[in-house]
User: Fold this.
Amino acid sequence: MERIWIAGPCAAESREQILTTASQLVTSSQEAGIELSFFRAGAWKMRSAPDGFTGAGEEALPWLQEVQNTHHIPVCVEVMNAKQVELCANYDIRTVWVGARTGVNPIEVQRIADAVKHSDFTVMVKNPIIPDLKLWMGNIDRFLQAGIQKVMAVHRGFTDAQENVYRNAPVWQLPIELKVQMPELPILCDPSHLSGHAQWVPELAQVAMTYGFNGLMVECHCCPEKALSDQKQQITPKEWAVMIAKLDLRSSTTDISLVQQRSILENIDNQLSELLYQRMVTADEIGRIKRQQHIAVVQPQQWQQVVKRYQKHTDDAEYQEFINKFLELLHQSSIKRQN
Ligand code: PEP
Ligand code: MN
Assistant:
């Protein structure tokens, strides 16, 4: 499975910060033998507080174009509206993502989808801040229906009212269910916005890889302590390369849908073991009543009913053979206990 590694600062702050971070990422990835798939940076930033740094805006786009031209690495930018798509195209930036906040506004997402319609843009769709799989899938569908060939999803966690260890609580069932519903769609993880803290980025990155995600989007800054946004969660390019190189990557046979099916199986096994135990306890009780009332242990008609119950699900011959053996064991065990 080819992995998608995306790294770069939360926000484009200055030409120097962008060019330094990009060249450090290129050097570190070469040293670690990793291929950086995309360089990321936000030109426009949606901030919670009104006095937060809202990004360099259009001014940042030529800096990013410079990264693309110098290092031949595609650059990606968050877009919040159709106008920003047009501006990106003017600077030859053809990979964009829809952020978690924009994701809760389907009208705006549709406008963005209309703006990229039938183009060669690559579009990443982050999960909306609320854990609503239908909304996330709907947003993805808007781009697929607009004829975009390269669409990817990004799990960046969900905002809730709880005090969590992580900044945005990961709800792994959602991207897993998304993978089950859209198996062809690459799903990335953004451990930076999930964790909110540089210290936890590697462990969440590993969880995502263990689940079989297709790649990561990680916030990296040449000087995280000076970052103008998301300061606590950014790591240096060197730390990024060390982290990626250390990841335990699972083979492509361990994809998310396999993990999902295994967890269903685990659940079934737990139920089965509980039910078999309950069955044995009940059979013991029946044995007690039979003893008390002098009723014969073996009741052939009764047992035929049991066999019928098990055979009704399928006429698959191999399965029937298995069920017959299983029932034989079950019956023998019951008789033995009742004796
Ligand atoms: C970002 O990637 O910089 C960003 C703002 O992400 P999110 O939309 O996930 O909060
Ligand atoms: Mn950020």
In short: Residues 10, 42, 78, 99-101, 126, 156, 190, 193 surround phosphoenolpyruvate (ligand 1) (CB under 6 Å). The first strand starts at residue 4 and ends at 8.
